[in-house]
Amino acid sequence: MKRTLASGIALVLLAASCGAGTGEGVASPAATVKASAAPVAAATQAAPPAPKFLVIFGDTIRGQLNLTEEEKLLTYPGIHCTQQSRFPQGQRIVWRMKAIDPTTGKYMSDKEIASFTITYPDGKSDKLVYGGHGGTKENPADYLWAVGYTVPIDYPTGAFNYKIEAKHLEGAVGTFEQFKVPFAQLQIVPATKK
Q1: Pairing assessment for the beta strands 187-189 and 86-88 based on DSSP bridges
Q2: Do 108 and 101 meet the contact criterion of CB atoms below 8 Å apart?
Q3: Rounded distance, CA 20 to CA 187, Å?
Q4: What are the residues facing 82 on neighbouring strands?
């Protein structure tokens, strides 16, 4: 009985060791590593999928047009380079925007963007232009999309609602609109007295 039991165990061990060595049954650790390494390498070489939407963000600043001498001295290099949401009649609003590809997390330049537009409250639209800003012409501090609008001197005061939209060359779209809270929106205020 002991001899039969021992012989049976030996046969099971022999069968197990033969099956592993011939590729029948459980694969060896080396085979497992090779098999799983190939798909990973192929996946890293594939191009990232095209985005389905874009992330848009930015701010508004005053342009230099019609600033008083006092306003030019408020900050260095002047009030025209600081974020604002209140713009006097007759002054210039400048939007500075960026678009991000959500699949890569990278900012998008004019090489990836088909169009970047703003629609004003009256329904008219304008194109944002991509370029270097701040720093020097040879070494800009940043690259972004920008557009300016001069508020007519008789423009009504109050909220100035606009919509910005960017379109990727492959069809993805991103939009930027103000919060719906009235006091958080860009406001046109009475003209600055000179």
Answers
A1: parallel
A2: yes
A3: 76
A4: none
